[in-house]
Amino acid sequence: MALIRWEPARELNALQGEMNRLFSTFFDAPAAGTPDGPGAPRRWIPAMDLVETDDHFVLRADLPGVAETDVELSLEENVLTVSGERHAEQEVRRDGFHRIERASGTFRRSLTLPEGVDGDAISASFDRGVLEVRIPKPAERKPRRLQIQVGDAPTPIEGRAAEQAATS
C-alpha cells in the first residue's frame, strides 16, 4: 500500500474550484453545447405580489426596463395571464472586461381567478415599471331560502289514473 502525503492547500484549491463552478452556473451565460447555447438570454421571471383588500384582489408586478407597450394582459376562462418581453440592452465595448447579469427575454405568468369574477371590471395601470391589476372580488353567493307552499297545491296523480290522464 502506498502512502500519500496530505496537502491542505491542494484540498482548499479543489474546494475553491467547486465553489467557482457552482456560482458560475447561476451568474454566467449558458455554456456552448447547452440547449440555450452561448449568449442566449437567461430566463426572466418578474416578481409579483397578490394582495387582498375588502373589495379587490390587487396584483402588482415589478417590470423594470419594460415599456407598457411590451406588456400584454389577457383573461381566458378565469385565468389571468400577464406576458411580455424585456429587451436586452447590448453594449459593445472594445477594452476591458464587462459582464451582463440582468436577464432579458419573454415572460409569462398566469393566475387562476375565483369563479364569478367580472372580467369587464378588471382594471390595470402601469407606473414607473410597476404593473398594477385590480380584480374585483365576486359577489358572495348567499344561501336563498325557498318558500314551501302548503295547501292549494296540486296533488300528484299516481298509478293508472296518471297514465289515463296523460293519454287523454
Automatic annotation (TrEMBL):
<dbReference type="InterPro" id="IPR002068">
    <property type="entry name" value="A-crystallin/Hsp20_dom"/>
</dbReference>
<feature type="domain" description="SHSP">
    <location>
        <begin position="39"/>
        <end position="151"/>
    </location>
</feature>
<comment type="similarity">
    <text>Belongs to the small heat shock protein (HSP20) family.</text>
</comment>
<dbReference type="InterPro" id="IPR031107">
    <property type="entry name" value="Small_HSP"/>
</dbReference>
<dbReference type="InterPro" id="IPR008978">
    <property type="entry name" value="HSP20-like_chaperone"/>
</dbReference>
<dbReference type="Pfam" id="PF00011">
    <property type="entry name" value="HSP20"/>
</dbReference>
<feature type="region of interest" description="Disordered">
    <location>
        <begin position="141"/>
        <end position="168"/>
    </location>
</feature>
<protein>
    <submittedName>
        <fullName>Hsp20/alpha crystallin family protein</fullName>
    </submittedName>
</protein>
